[in-house]
Write a structure and sequence with these properties.
The chain has 13 helices and 17 strands. The protein has 2 domains: 233 residues, Response regulator (Rossmann fold, 3-Layer(aba) Sandwich); 146 residues, Response regulator (Rossmann fold). Helix 2 runs parallel beside helix 3 and helix 10 packs parallel to helix 13. It has 394 residues and is of the alpha/beta class. The strands form 4 sheets. The protein has a 7-stranded mixed sheet with strand order 8-7-9-10-11-16-17, sandwiched between helices. A 6-stranded mixed sheet has the order 1-3-2-4-5-6, sandwiched between helices.
């Protein structure tokens, strides 16, 4: 797995040629940390959309776009804040795509984006607390709140006949927010949560945590963790000790890292990740192949959509000023207007330039609701033959 340590932001020109004007977009994701295996495909997805816009020659009279990558680390708010500040003050970005994790996203938003009047658009931050944060109309996200995911999790488990569960969550905004949302929905539907306990990422041994979970009991273990650190460690300890052999995995536990770590040991495990039954979204497979990434990897579609919507909002505003184009993001992402899918960004730019309207659907069937977050649909995942496969949509 490639790892990109971005202690200093790296600039990558994504236009075929530099025109008289060029703008920069910051891509600030957790390239290191507990979800690092997701970051490269996400960053490449956003860059693919911005490259498509830039190379069309139709963006703001030939303006081109370059990207600045930065590492938010997922877990270190101080680092995330520092990198975001540098993107604005030194690099002069016109927008920030990120962060990957909710805690880093909130830190950047409150400490940097809002004070500097900068648009911030996360492909993947899902904490319910981000719905109510004071953002001055500057924050958007292409994934639904975990208030919705908690309900979906509960519905899946009830339909599977699961009546009692133990829950472990990574000890941060994302983990606690989703664990609490799930417990509220599951108990309301008649289920029982035997224990709802935090775990820390980065530990070598999770036997004590798994022992407490096993003592509480349950039909299965819900692991609200990260696929590259604590969540994976919890599953391994549970399997090795025989504490649990059934699991349920939410969005941050879906990815190749889990397949590689456990194979068919966890066959039958269910889970969910944001995604829609959107046949046009399959165009991202070819786009990904052309740009060297997996177009339908977790959150890669949302990342492409984030880059696309940010650029289309600038086109609609006739400006790259965040204070101006922020008011056009909801417009280009929703009806009315001609529906726009992956690979059709040049057409969208032309429609907007001629005075028309677009309804950007993209790869994730994006629809933004107030206060600027995705309405929410999910791919239901099941591990079969060691692979996490899609078995439905909600």
């Amino acid at each position: 797995m490639k790892k990109f340590l971005m202690a200093t932001a790296a600039s990558t020109l994504i236009a075929g040629a530099v025109s008289a004007e060029e703008i920069k977009i910051g891509i600030l994701l957790g390239f290191t940390g507990p979800a690092e295996s997701l970051a490269e495909d996400m960053a490449s997805g956003a860059e693919a959309a911005l490259k498509e816009v830039s190379e069309s020659g139709k963006f703001l009279d030939g303006t081109t776009i370059s990207t600045i990558r930065g590492d938010s680390t997922c877990t270190d708010a101080a680092v995330a804040t520092s990198v975001a500040e540098r993107m604005i003050t030194a690099d002069g970005v016109s927008g920030i795509i990120g962060a990957l994790c909710s805690g880093a996203t909130g830190a950047i938003l409150q400490n940097v984006a809002v004070p500097n009047g900068m648009v911030q658009f996360s492909p993947s931050a899902t904490s319910p607390s981000l719905t109510t944060v004071e953002d001055n109309g500057l924050f958007f996200r292409a994934s639904p709140s975990d208030a919705r995911q908690g309900q979906i999790m509960a519905e899946i488990l009830m339909e599977e006949g699961v009546e009692t569960v133990a829950v472990t969550y990574t000890n941060n905004d994302y983990g606690k927010g989703l664990a609490d949302a799930f417990e509220g929905s599951f108990t309301e539907m008649g289920g029982t949560v035997t224990i709802n306990a935090a775990h820390e990422d980065g530990k070598a041994d999770y036997s004590a945590e798994v022992g407490a979970l096993a003592s509480a009991g349950g039909d299965l273990l819900v692991v609200v963790g990260y696929l590259d650190q604590g969540g994976q460690g919890i599953i391994r300890a549970a399997l090795d000790t025989g504490a649990f052999d059934r699991f349920h995995l939410p969005d941050a536990m879906i990815g190749e890292t889990i397949e590689e770590a456990f194979g068919d040991e966890i066959d039958g495990t269910m889970g969910q990740v944001p995604g829609a039954d959107n046949p046009q979204g399959e165009a991202l497979i070819a786009i990904g192949e052309a740009n060297g990434y997996q177009g339908l990897a977790p959150y890669a579609a949302e990342s492409y959509d984030t880059g696309a919507v940010m650029a289309l909002a600038m086109q609609a505003a006739g400006s790259t000023d965040p204070q101006v184009y922020k008011d056009h993001i909801m417009d280009v992402a929703n009806a009315p207007g001609e529906k726009i899918y992956p690979g059709e960004l040049e057409k969208a730019l032309e429609i907007i330039a001629s005075g028309g309207e677009v309804d950007y659907v993209g790869g994730s069937a994006l629809e933004l609701i107030e206060p600027g977050e995705a309405a929410g649909s999910y791919r239901v995942i099941k591990t079969e033959g060691g692979k996490q496969v899609t078995v439905g949509y909600r």
